[in-house]
Every structure is written in C-alpha cells, then in structure tokens.
Amino acid sequence: MTDTLQGDDVPASPGRRQVLGLPLTVGPFNHVAAERDRLASLQWQHFDAEQIGVTVGARISGVDLTEPLSDGVLGELRTALHDYKVLFFREQPLTAQAHACLARQFGPLEVHPLLPSNGADPALARFQKDATTSGYENVWHHDVTWRPEPSIVAILHAIDVPPIGGDTLFADMYAAYDSLDDETKSEIEHLDAVHDFTNAFGGLLPAAKVAELQAMHPSVRHPVVCTHPVTGRRHLYVNHAFVRRIDGYSQDASIDLLDRLCRTANAPEHQCRFRWAVDSVAIWDNRAVQHYAASDYWPHTRVMERASVIGPRPQR
C-alpha cells in the first residue's frame, strides 16, 4: 500500500513553465491536486461511484433510473452531481415518460425553442445524426447560454449509438478558472460576455427565420466568471459556440481574450471522456462543465435525447 503524503512530507510542486520561443506551457497541473484527492475520498450510502476523471466525472452503479427515486437516493445524487460535476450510468432503458419523470425530480424542464422533440414529450430534445445530416455539436460549450436563464442540469439518454466513436467529453470549468494566472483573473473579474444563439444556429436557418427567432430570443449578457449557487466555487462561463463578444472590448481584443479563456477547456487534465452504449445516461451540471460531442462516426447513426432543467440566472 502506498503511504499518503501529508503536511511537510508533500513535495513542493515545480509548477508550470513556458517553453522558450513558443506559446506553450509544460509541467504539473498542481491546481487539480486538492479536488482530485477530495473526490477520491468520498463515500456514498445509496450507490457506488467510480471516479473516472481527475476532477470531473464518475460512473454510478446501484441506482435504477427507470423508477422514481427515493428522497434519500435523489438527495445523494444531487450531492454527487455537485461533487463530480457529471454522473454516468449504464443499462438504464428509459422510456420517454421515465426520462422526463427522472429529469423533473431535479426541477422544472425547458422546451428547447430550436431543436426537435421526440414527440412524446416536448421537453425531450432529440439529436439524430446519420449519413445525411450535419451537426454543430463538436465544439466546447455549455448548453443554451444564449437564454436569460440557461439550464442548470442536463440528462442525456443514448437511444442508438455507432459501433465506435460519438463519445462525449466534459471539461471542469472550476479547474479551468483555477488554472488562470492572477493577472487574467483580475482582468475578467467584472466582465460580461454577450451570448447569442446565431453563433451556432444562424448558419443553419433561413435569414427570415433567424430574424424571427432573434426577436424572440435577443442576445443576453452573463458574467465571464460566475459563482456556483450551491458549491460557492468560481467557474468560467464562456464558450465559442454561443459567445458573440466580451462586453466593452474591441472585436480583436474580444476574440483574443475569448480564445485564451476557451483554451482552458482543451487541457486533458481538466477533462473526462465517456463512451456511449445504448441506454447509457449522463447527468451533468451545466454550470460547472462544458461538453464536446465528438463527430467522428459518419456515416453511422447516433440518436440521443436530452432533458434540461431550468435554473436561476448565472450570478457573479
């Protein structure tokens, strides 16, 4: 058994350093150590959890999501969700009714104004990709940040999956914020970002339809750095999919800052990756993580359905 290092026995981290002549830093991500070790120490009464990412993601076993959850199980799952940020389940053959029922135990559901539903329940958005369709999913993003009150929890159910490919990656945006230097943290402390659905959807719709939807869903402003209302931790809340610009910055300066912040999600040390199987389920905290659906399975089919829980407006 390996002894746990404590106190003065813990070696000082050498930290990260920039490679001379290159826009590249190397070295240990020491900012993830405390959260990594905290998650590894957690124990649960109603289920088992296997940590799969350094600071994000856990496989949950011993829970049947097809039946209404008891108060004890639901309460502990909520706690686990805020700890691990995303929970993964296998072999959960949810009907549309069971999926919506599960999601409503976490809060009221939104009906996505732009995505098709499965027909049985308008709150279940359906994502169906095959050889004839193209998507916009393979970019890091939080869901629907272009709404005044974006969703706080998402529950995604796999209905049909390709033989290989179509994984979803998740990035811990607490860790992303923690990775920033003090100068950048100070710069972004009081900034807002302008979020607009046309970034992702505008090129897929006729101009008249875009104008109609813009009247219904004008751009909104959210803090670049938010404080999570449950954990009290600070996290980045910007993404290339929906952020049009940083408020008060020139276009060039806005693009530069947005690129620098969004690159923090690219670090594998901030990520976990999930390979889907039919009837797998993922539940994630849409504030604490971004996700990226890999589009590497053409011409195969991938069908998913998502329920999203409405929450309060993001706060600084």
Annotate the secondary structure layout:
Elements: E1 17-18, E2 25-26, H1 33-40, E3 48-51, E4 58-61, H2 71-84, E5 86-89, H3 96-104, E6 124-129, E7 151-160, E8 168-172, H4 173-178, H5 182-188, E9 192-195, H6 198-201, H7 207-216, E10 220-223, E11 225-227, E12 234-236, E13 243-246, H8 251-262, E14 271-274, E15 281-285, E16 289-293, E17 302-310
Parallel strand pairs: 4-5
Antiparallel strand pairs: 1-2, 3-4, 5-15, 6-17, 7-15, 7-17, 8-14, 8-16, 9-10, 9-13, 11-12
Counting H and I runs of at least 4 residues, what is the number of helices? 8
Helix and strand pattern: EEHEEHEHEEEHHEHHEEEEHEEEE
Largest sheet, spatial ordering of strands:
3-4-5-15-7-17-6
Kindly identify the CATH topology: Double-stranded beta-helix
How many whole angstroms does the radius of gyration measure? Answer: 20 Å
Distance between the termini: 44 Å
Helicity, in percent?
10-25%
**Number of E-type strands:** 17
Q: What general form does the structure show?
A: globular
The CATH architecture designation is: 4-Layer Sandwich
Contiguous uncertain segments of 5+ residues = 1-13
CATH class category label: Alpha Beta
What fraction of residues sit in β-strands? 15-25%
Describe the structure.
With 316 residues, the chain is of the alpha+beta class. Helices cover 22% and strands 25% of the residues. It is built from eight helices and 17 strands. It has helices at residues 33-40, 71-84, 96-104, 173-178, 182-188, 198-201, 207-216, 251-262, and strands spanning 17-18, 25-26, 48-51, 58-61, 86-89, 124-129, 151-160, 168-172, 192-195, 220-223, 225-227, 234-236, 243-246, 271-274, 281-285, 289-293, 302-310. It has a seven-stranded mixed sheet with strand order 3-4-5-15-7-17-6, with helices on one face.
